[in-house]
Structures are given as C-alpha cells and as structure tokens.
Amino acid sequence: MFGGNSNWRGPVWFPLNYLMVTVLERYHRFFGDEFTIEYPTGSGQQRHLGQVAADLQDRLISIFTNDAQGRRACFGGTELMQADPAWHDNLIFSEYFHGDNGAAIGAFHQTGWTGVVADMIRRRHGEVEAVGDVIRQIVAESREIGQ
After folding, report:
1. ∠ CA 86-90-63 to the nearest 5 degrees?
2. Beta strands 96-97; 104-105: pairing state
3. Counting C-beta atoms within 10 Å of the first and last residue's C-beta, which end of the chain has fewer, N or C?
4. pTM of the prediction?
C-alpha cells in the first residue's frame, strides 16, 4: 500500500534517503560506470549508480528550492509561506515530507535529521567529499603510517 499520511507508506524521510544516496555512491565507486540499472523503473533508460544517486540528491534538494514559479515544495499549499517575503526564505525542516508533492508533514524544526540536506547540498556541488571517500582516505593514510 502506498500513500496517505502513514509513516511508512509513501512519505519522504531524510535520514533513510540520505543513507540510500550514500550507499548508491559507495556502490558506484566499487562497480564503476559499467554497472547500470533501469532508472527510473519502467523507463527503459540505463543509468549507473552515480547518476541515480545524483538524481535522488537533486530531487531531495528540490523540496527546499524555488521552482519555476518561485514556490517551494516544502511549503505545500501554505500561501503565507509561499508568497510573503518575510516567510518565504524561512525554510521548514519538517519531520518528513509528502511523497507526491514534497509538502512538509509531521513535527517542524527537525534540524537533527532533516538538516542532513545541508550536507547533501555540499556534497552534490563538490564543496565537500562524500563520507565514503573521506573514510577511504583515512584508511589509506593510516596504512601508510603503519608501514
């Protein structure tokens, strides 16, 4: 079953999506560009896991960014947040988000886990390296020191 305001049948939870993107990046580093999957499912298009991870990141980040009409998905139908300049740039880090339209659902001010979008943005745009890359560098450096 999919949809509704159920915790596990449709909404977007940032911690789980963050972990999924991280795992896809790690698998892409291992398998490389040659390993592809059909993405999106049913499209007939083959993508490597790095492309899938990047698309998921872009989709998650877009919940908070302005669309072509200047609206933010996270604000849903709340016109005060969408239209009033005093509110429009005050982002909501909600507990989770509607699976179809990205509107904020659940408790607000969940900066502890929804705030991982900040790391996702920085990683997606090359400001910081992916966690897996940092761990790999630390392991390599510790091996050099131990030799």
Report:
1. 130
2. antiparallel
3. C
4. 0.82
